[in-house]
Amino acid sequence: MTDPQFTSDIEAIRSIDAVPVILSMVKHITGMRFAAVARVTENNWVACAVDDSIDFGLKPGDELVLESTICHEIRQHQQPVIFGHASLHPIFSLHHTPRTYGLESYISIPIVKADGEFFGTLCAIDSVPAKLDEPAIAKTLTLFAQLIAMSLDTQTRLHAAKVELDTANELGRLREQFIAVLGHDLRTPLSAIRMSADLLETKVEDKRSLNFIAAIRNSSVRMGVLIENILDFARGRLGGGIPVQRKLVDDLQRTLRMTLEEVQVSHPQATFIHRLDVPTGVYCDALRISQLLSNLLGNAVTHGSISEPIVLNAWAENDEFVISLTNQGTPIAPHLIPLLFEPFSRSEAGQRCEGLGLGLYIASQIATAHNGSLSVTSDSESGTCFVARFPAQFKWV
């Protein structure tokens, strides 16, 4: 049974999407058959994530006797330990850990957070020898350990942000300033993750490894969306609303279609029906309108029924441009509808709590910035329908 004091550590590692990919990459790069992320404290060694092909017997939450591990020593000196053939090694042939667990090959990299806190190790083991002399192996695993540490730091910052937001005055300026600074700070580890993925891509050629790298990059894209939502929220609260740059756009229909296609690729389980009848010369910020539509589509996929099609329509009506999106599912109670467009109120509105609950708020702010509106109706017969409309100039051809 997992010690309750380590539950949060295990959950923190589990919530990092890239960890399973990292463990698979560690096994692939080293040729070893067991990889794990371990939480190592003064008294405990606890497995947080495991990729085991040798039936070593550990699963997340399991513990080893700390003194029986080399990680106990790594916690003290915070340096990597690597050997590929323990029985021939001048030091580790006599060490108790390889003898206790029947190990021949071993690599363990410390995971150290930005404030200097030692979290644990990224490690790999095997009962057979492995070729670990190539310097690129240690460098790559060190990079992986740094990525895990940066992700943990990001979680800490987000948790601190939530605590601050929960306790700050609803209208307090300090809350918005804190989020703005936080959003900028998050870009630093995100840039490191993206650059690291690009670097890894130049070092490998096989398709399987490239797929793993693509998964890391996709995770960073999702983090980027979250950061941009935070920054848009801060801009909307601190300034005069979300900024838009309106101009006459002749290819808005193409932009909306591309946005829909991107969401379709990300959510192949959902079915979409669309009718786009968009004129040329729409006076708008095309990128912001695309963001509005993407947020509405994401909300429909996440909170609607994917067994029924999601219906998208866009058209010109008199002097207005209109986007309508309808999905089926459990209708929203009337008294909860006003909460949908408020930030950080998703759980209050009875919705599942993926993300920060900023998508509909930002969509509403984009409509407002175009001197328009975003409204919603919801009932069991017609489904839930969001309608965005704003005044526009049209150049009919």
UniProtKB/TrEMBL annotation:
This is histidine kinase. InterPro entries: BphY/WalK/GraS-like, GAF, GAF-like_dom_sf, HATPase_C_sf, HATPase_dom, His_kinase_dom, HisK_dim/P_dom, HisK_dim/P_sf. Keywords: Kinase, Phosphoprotein, Transferase. PANTHER family: HISTIDINE KINASE (PTHR42878:SF13), TWO-COMPONENT HISTIDINE KINASE (PTHR42878). It comes from the Bacteria. It holds the Pfam family GAF. The keyword Manganese does not apply. It is an enzyme of class 2 (transferase). GO terms for biological process: osmosensory signaling via phosphorelay pathway. It catalyses: ATP + protein L-histidine = ADP + protein N-phospho-L-histidine. GO terms for molecular function: phosphorelay response regulator activity; phosphorelay sensor kinase activity; protein kinase activator activity. PROSITE patterns: HIS_KIN. SUPFAM superfamilies: ATPase domain of HSP90 chaperone/DNA topoisomerase II/histidine kinase, GAF domain-like, Homodimeric domain of signal transducing histidine kinase. Residues 181-394 form the Histidine kinase domain. Its EC number is 2.7.13.3. It comes from Pseudomonas shahriarae.
